[in-house]
Amino acid sequence: MTAREISGGKRERKSSPECCQIHLLAHYRHHRHHGDFVFYHRRFHHGDELYDVRPLLKQLNQHFDSNRALINLPRKFKIAVSGCHLHCIRHEIQNVSFVAVPQDDKVVFDLYVGGGLSSGRQFALRLERTCQPDQVLAVSDAVAHLFHDYGNRENRSAARLRHLIQNWGLEKFRDALENQLDFVLGTGQPPQLTALAQRHHYGSFNSHNRKTCGLGIKTSSGKLGAETVSALIKLMEHHHIDFVRLTPTQDLLLLGLKKNSLPEVIEGLHALDLQTAPGPLRLHSTACTGLTYCKFALSETKEFTEQLLKSLEQRFPEWEKPLTIAVSGCPTAAPTLLSPISVWWAAKSKTHPASQSTGMIYT
Ligand code: SF4
């Protein structure tokens, strides 16, 4: 997304696949009857990324957009395709994930299935199978058909793909998937996954062409405010910065910076209270949408998180170990499965949930 596009400059309307191409994190959702696809992909011209997944995502979008056989899935269905060398897509909490892995001078995708939050929450299970990039579409389609045909349609709380896998067991699911395919999936060693504490892109990094660079910026739990956005656009225009993209952890990436402008850009960002080297206590903090925009929320989350982090930073100025704190406005606790410290709100009373909610902390 360019600075002009953010600021509301004239922009040609694009269809969904092209829109997905220009986003770092493509979040594309269909609401058709009960069916619901969500696609994620990672690609942002990082010099160390493993694979450009944008063409794959375009294929997936086109396929599912025009596939009437899959318009009535039991519930939401999320596909993640990651070419990121730091594994920041969070494949652990997606329904089907393709994680790029180098293998014999090529890149294959390691498969994970059944991750998810809320009821029956679990980390995605490694299928112990790999596929080639040109097989991503067929595998996604086969998993979607299994979900369509065998997913639970009686009980909404047990209707996600993970529930089907929990009922069947991974082996039966893998056999069923392989029976659907007209090619043989590969096998390989598990990917060397980046530790959660290192899955971020803060600070500067080289782009593919090595002539320009990118800059990862920590936001305040994804909240910027109109004045900050406006000032950020001016800063980008002043330094001829090409693109800004979003990350799965509510942060920003500026792309196409000239290397000699880096110190001045960082100074400008700090003046806007946007950090490029966040401290260990806020390195991985996230907050869900919360009461401001979510009808399920029992509490505001983003201001609360900022106050919590400021308080911790004052009390523990010498703290060194990266900490992951996730705040959620309801017991669904969407961001919290991957976080050693979670804060969420639960209702004390079903009749007056918002006024009777109480904060819960889990470590
Ligand atoms: S975790 Fe709960 S409160 Fe937060 S955005 Fe999701 S549904 Fe809403």
UniProtKB/TrEMBL annotation:
InterPro entries: NIR_SIR_4Fe-4S, NiRdtase/SiRdtase_haem-b_fer, Nit/Sulf_reduc_fer-like_dom_sf, NO2/SO3_Rdtase_4Fe4S_dom, NO2/SO3_Rdtase_4Fe4S_sf. Residues 47-182 form the Nitrite/sulphite reductase 4Fe-4S domain. One of its GO terms (molecular function) is heme binding. Keywords: 4Fe-4S, Heme, Iron, Iron-sulfur, Metal-binding, Oxidoreductase. The keyword Chaperone does not apply. Coiled coil: none annotated. The keyword Endoplasmic reticulum does not apply. It holds the Pfam family NIR_SIR_ferr. Residues 213-271 form the Nitrite/Sulfite reductase ferredoxin-like domain. PANTHER family: FERREDOXIN--NITRITE REDUCTASE, CHLOROPLASTIC. Belongs to the nitrite and sulfite reductase 4Fe-4S domain family. This is Nitrite and sulphite reductase 4Fe-4S region. It comes from Desulfuromonas acetoxidans (strain DSM 684 / 11070).
